[in-house]
């Protein structure tokens, strides 16, 4: 073929491509040589390309095109059409501190004229350096034979140490496990497994915003945080599940309190940090790994543990907005009921955006990595900022759960380990033991809690059992003894010639688990003692023996107490106040039925 | 009858008939049926509908009605009673056989 008949090279294409990465036409280029980079399984070829005016040594052949090399279709001097390509910016050891090197990834090429026909370098292309500027003329291999390829002399192993060759590209990457604050010329290739929302703060030292992310590679994982300017720069570009080359971030000792990531160090993105999407082979970078705990095992774990869990979201409450008592901030949350094939149910609290967007109507399988276990209501779990949530993930455990739930799991008898708190006095309320009530922190919320307990009267405080009260019909306020035969009521602003006896008993009651001091007012006190306050008041001064007998007779009797509990503040101290709302004789038949029912629920009985 | 306190196992009629509790100190509840002529024996219809003979060491001095709780040893055929308690009809009226049977089964289930 005559030289004049050969297609012309697209002069100037290469700087245009490197410059802004956009090139709408298909450039015609010439191959001036190639080098193979040895990898683990696949070879990777670096191509020296020329557009007639400029040449560039950083063209990478996409691995799916490797056969072209093997078939000799990309021998030196071949003219090719570059039908598909992409430009990547990569930071390497060599470019640390300077602008990043640009690599043209040749995704699809069409050899038009074989190198043997062309036979020579077209034009006198000037070599561009890695940022697209003309550099000194690099000696280019111009031997006519097509078989010139030599591998880089570096060793192939990928693990450990500094400066190991990356197998798949020209970039040297370091294992996450090797990162330390004492060496900052590194690049990692890692997959983002988690990204938090942007959080803002405002305190006495100032204000700002941040987001954090978790990353993983074959050697380990690490957490990174980006503040203020870096937060804005990287938040939208970083996507969970994608692999990036990251370099030039600060490393410092990790604050393990906020994360379950296992690394002594964590990263802070700085002004110089670069994050580049990796388009190379990322199959050796693992994805998120889970270590699920069956729901029926949660009771055995300590509160505040961070765990992974998977279950079917059988139902969810409405989104709730609550104000944090500590920070006065508005928090959004949604409670979801999660069940798994151990026939156990647990309450899951989803905070923030996750809660807002969650929809349980399809009863999806939900997998969560890094939720916090609390002892609220027994056992319950809640998301924290580092939690990863996956809805209907494509994994074996999820498919198994779906199968279990759809084939009967949904209607099986489920026992909940996050017992709902009985609200208000409506209904007969639930029965608890004192240990359960304590465990579930009843009374610790904003509203008082009510519960029933079968307990025995262990001791009644006789001394302060009675007080002198205002004789007025609707007033029960304690009156002041004027010691002149008159009694003054501050509430009624009057003085009276007499008073009425009222009781306020401090009683210690006990069940099989614990004991509790409770307060009984007039009605419940009269029930326990079997006498009216009036009678007892009179007996106190007239017949002390009888008075004592009444109290003795009242002890060591079983009752069902309906209790109202509320945490109250007294001089900076929080005290649990327990009042007896109602006291009833034990109905042993009902008691028996309830015990049998509870035992069955606990699956001890058949 | 004054009997020193021993630990008795609360059982149902069916359990006695399996002979798992022979010669053990047991306690059974039921409804007294006919009393024998010698007043020392009566049939107890247990809460789980089994008829079991109860033999006492002394004749019964009162009219048995309502429910009876018998403590003694089962010899394979009869209960040799050491003591009994009677539950008058007014109290026994409320007694629920089914839940009682369930409770006893649960109690015995882990032995």
From TrEMBL, chain A:
InterPro entries: Euk_RPA1_DBD_C, NA-bd_OB-fold, NA-bd_OB_tRNA, Rep_factor-A_C, Rep_factor-A_N, REPA_OB_2, Rfa1. Residues 9-112 form the Replication factor-A protein 1 N-terminal domain. GO terms for molecular function: DNA binding; zinc ion binding. It holds the Pfam family tRNA_anti-codon. GO terms for biological process: DNA recombination; DNA repair; DNA replication. Gene3D superfamilies: Nucleic acid-binding proteins. As part of the heterotrimeric replication protein A complex (RPA/RP-A), binds and stabilizes single-stranded DNA intermediates, that form during DNA replication or upon DNA stress. It prevents their reannealing and in parallel, recruits and activates different proteins and complexes involved in DNA metabolism. Thereby, it plays an essential role both in DNA replication and the cellular response to DNA damage. NCBIfam families: rpa1. Belongs to the replication factor A protein 1 family. This is Replication protein A subunit.
Automatic annotation (TrEMBL), chain B:
The keyword Disulfide bond does not apply. GO terms for molecular function: damaged DNA binding; single-stranded DNA binding. GO terms for biological process: base-excision repair; DNA replication; double-strand break repair via homologous recombination; mismatch repair; nucleotide-excision repair. It comes from the Eukaryota. Coiled coil: none annotated. It is found in: Nucleus. InterPro entries: NA-bd_OB-fold, Rfa2. GO terms for cellular component: DNA replication factor A complex; site of double-strand break. Transmembrane segments: none annotated. The keyword Nucleotide-binding does not apply. Keywords: Nucleus. Its main location: nucleus. Belongs to the replication factor A protein 3 family. This is Replication protein A 14 kDa subunit. It comes from Daphnia sinensis. The lineage of its organism: Eukaryota, Metazoa, Ecdysozoa, Arthropoda, Crustacea.
